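[retry 2/3] SET domain-containing: previous attempt timed out, resubmitting with same input.
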Amino acid sequence: MATGHINIHFKSLTNPKENYVSNYEFNDDDQDIAIIPILFCDALSLWCHNYTEAFVEIPIDDLWSRFADMCTTYAIPPHLANKITNAINYIERHKDQYIGISTRHRKRRPKSQSIRKSQQCVSNTQKDVRCRKRTAHTEKCWIHLAKQNNLRIKPSNVAGAGKGLFAWKKPITRGKLISKYTGRKLSKKELDKKYGDGVAKYAVCNKRGRCVDATYTTDAAARFVNDSRGTSFQNNAKIKGNQMFKLKATKKIPANQEIFTSYGKEYWQ
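[retry 2/3] SET domain-containing: success.
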């Protein structure tokens, strides 16, 4: 299957019949193909149904959001990061001239507490050399996380929850350690100072006021666990700890099933 390429056309605000064709072309090749289903899923879907040249109108603020989410969520090569950054900068400089943007009325997107980080996998291969794969989710690449920890990180079954933590090919027995909860160690006072009245979405604290803030995407797999509150799913794990926080199974978790834990009452207030 080949979609050819995707061009971004900016429609004029004063004359919708006119448009500016940007020089940001995303090609269906080994370098760019990975981002097309993410950034231009609607265009790809239409093309898959018609197999002809397809045009999809996307509001500029929506496209800007997709670019921003792409840069913060996925591990992408430098050339793509530069291409996306250039496109974002162009939109930022000219957004008042085009349809769908009004800086005076546009709602500011809340800043994400999750900080995307990419690093080399810390595990060794079968040849006893360090794995060369890069990862943006935990300190291990997805292959070693699955083989060594029986865990996968993929889209959650909870709508709008983003990524979720799953058991892989083997069931997880009750009481088993699933993952340590690692990150920056802070006191409750330091955490409150950092986030003010906001909720620290990736932090856990114990009754002694010791906290761990797992803001980086390369922190432990436990940071990706979701709460089943308001869904048909049930929590099947719990985070506890004194000197070190750990995510443990509170019941048997079948293979390929998502792992859930309670975030506590304070999170939902």
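[retry 2/3] SET domain-containing: The first helix runs from residue 36 to 39.
[retry 2/3] clearing retry counter.
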